[in-house]
Amino acid sequence: MIEPSQPSRRQRMVVLAICCMSLLIVSLDNTVLNVALPSMRRDLNASVAGMQWTIDAYTLVLASLLMLAGSTADRIGRRKVFVAGLVLFTVGSLLCSLAPTLDWLIAYRMVQAVGGAMLNPVAMSIITNTFTEPAERARAIGVWGAVAGISMAAGPLVGGVLVDSVGWRSIFWVNLPVGLVALALTLRHVPESRAARPRRVDPVGQLLVMALLGSLTYGIIEAPAAGWRSPLIMGCALVAVASLVGLLRYEPRREEPLIDFRFFRSAPFSGATVIAVSAFAGMAGFLFLNTLYLQEVMGLDALHAGLYMLPMAAMTMLVAPLSGRLVGSRGPRLPMLIAGVAMAASGLLFAAFRAETSTALMFTGYVLFGLGFGMVNAPVTNTAVSGMPRSQAGVAAAIASTSRQTGSTLGVAVVGAVLAAGLARGSDFAGSAAPAWWIITVCGLLVLVVGAASSGQWARSTAERTARTLDPAGARVPAAPRASEPGH
Questions:
Q1: 451 belongs to a structural domain
Q2: Are residues 153 and 219 located together in one domain of the fold?
Q3: pLDDT at 390
Q4: Angle, to 10 degrees, between the axis of helix 134-165 and the axis of helix 359-385?
Q5: CA–CA gap between residue 390 and residue 128 (Å, rounded)
Q6: Crossing angle, helix 429-453 and helix 267-292, to 10 degrees?
Q7: Entry pTM
Q8: How far apart are CA 218 and CA 135, in angstroms?
Q9: Do 360 and 232 have their domain in common?
Q10: Do residue 212 and residue 354 come from a single domain?
């Protein structure tokens, strides 16, 4: 095993900055694309489904490979995998900027995603093993969560500026200098580390995960055009169900599975997974609908569409660091409850009161959604890794990251499918989008309800029992302070 000596505070801050740089380009590259969709649609002659695939090809590959990347990093070295991810992501970004057709763009987005899958869970594992003191680790994860929230919310504004001034291909150029700087700093400052007992390769489990997510996403996106009862869509449904059953039956029998279902005996961990899927599904659907509405219906250019969503980005930037401090001092419960209420209220404004028809209501909805999304990242990340064995930190973090990307994938797929189905029936955009807004409202309510249920005394007791099962020796990642405990 390679375990680095305890780094100084300055070294720890440099490592955190490097990890946040990798998160920034991976997360920003997804949301920044949203505001470029209408321009890409015109230049590449793409359909709504084609636009969905430019987003979902990326998030789907990320979700499929994150757990494999996390366990591989624990096995062969986190620094090695992190460096490989930076190189591949940067090269993929360059290829995307040169894509001649939609099909090539989707293919290059998948190359990007393979590199991105090597970054986020590995970076979280590096952070977890670098910041070992509970309060300091919670604050570091809070910064991480803040960067994730900021990159997601700021994407439309950054994309709008680039698309309107240079063109949609420029959104991929941003990754090149950031990726190269992060690579140079990683080689200089990040020490190598790996788990004492890394998990073995689980090719069957990996294939089942890819089959499940791939068939589910493909079926949802293509169903409006092919028909929900067409042989193609029914075949996708059968593959998805068979893959899920296969995972549930095969993985528990392995000594070292790709997905250790014992993790889910912890109510906080299971709750964090559900919350991550719900929150990121809501966010991805929210951005997808607003981007198309602002540009296709209101006729705004990319820059002004990004500026319209500035209240959401600004609110996320303000509250995301606060969320990290709240998690570090009082635990994850309060930020999760605030997030659920705010996200559900925002969705309700659009679903029930047609907020898009009123500038005041629209901006109120943006502020509320930015508040909710800014609050949700830090508690989800902290809860996912707290109490887990340090040797499996990469796997635990990868499951949390997989939940996020799965949520983003399903959010775009489901919201896009609902919108496409309504437009195909001849409804206007507002009428077609109304059911999708109710779906986003439900996502917010899930964050609220599951957050409340998974952060109480009973939930903590299940986490403690699960921790003892996973790591009888007690070498676990410390948990964040409970709401009743004073800050450190």
A1: yes
A2: no
A3: 62
A4: 140
A5: 8
A6: 160
A7: 0.82
A8: 42
A9: no
A10: no
The dihedral built from the CA positions of residue 453, 456, 462 and 467, taken in this order, carries a sign that is positive
DSSP output for 409-425: HHHHHHHHHHHHHHHHT
3-class DSSP assignment, residue 300: coil
| CATH code assigned at 76 | 1.20.1250.20
The answer to whether residues 82 and 73 touch, using CB atoms and an 8 Å cutoff, is yes
Residue 1 lies in a domain: no
Instruction: State the Cα angle at 470 between 468 and 471, rounded to 5°.
Output: 65
Cβ atoms within 10 Å, residue 357 = 10
pLDDT score for 145? 65
Angle between helices 267-292 and 134-165 (to 10 degrees): 10
Amino acid identity at 306: G
Residue 211 and residue 108 share a domain:
no
Mean pLDDT by 10 residues, the chain (488 residues): 62 90 83 85 85 87 82 86 95 95 94 90 81 78 72 78 90 92 92 75 88 89 85 95 95 84 87 93 92 90 87 85 82 93 97 91 95 88 68 66 85 90 84 93 97 87 80 61 45
pLDDT in the model for residue 474 = 59
Same domain, 333 and 461: yes
| Residue 485 within a domain | no
Q: 463: which 2 tokens?
A: 């986490």
Residues 195 and 271 in one domain: yes
Give the amino acid at 180: L
Look up residue 293 and give its amino acid: Y
**How far apart (Å, rounded) are the C-alpha atoms in residues 409 and 417?**
12
Question: Phi/psi zone of residue 243: left (φ > 0), alpha (ψ -120 to 50 degrees), beta?
Answer: alpha
8 Å CB contact between 2 and 194: yes
Write out the two tokens for 61: 């590959």
Six token digits for residue 193: 């580390």
What are the respective helix, strand and coil percentages of the chain, to the nearest 5? 80, 0, 20
> What is the distance between the alpha carbons of residues 126 and 81, in angstroms, rounded to a whole number?
11
Is 111 in the same domain as 260?
A: yes
> Is 442 inside a domain boundary?
yes
Q: Are residues 153 and 248 in the same domain?
A: no
Domain around 249: 203-253
- C-alpha span between 126 and 339 (Å, rounded): 27
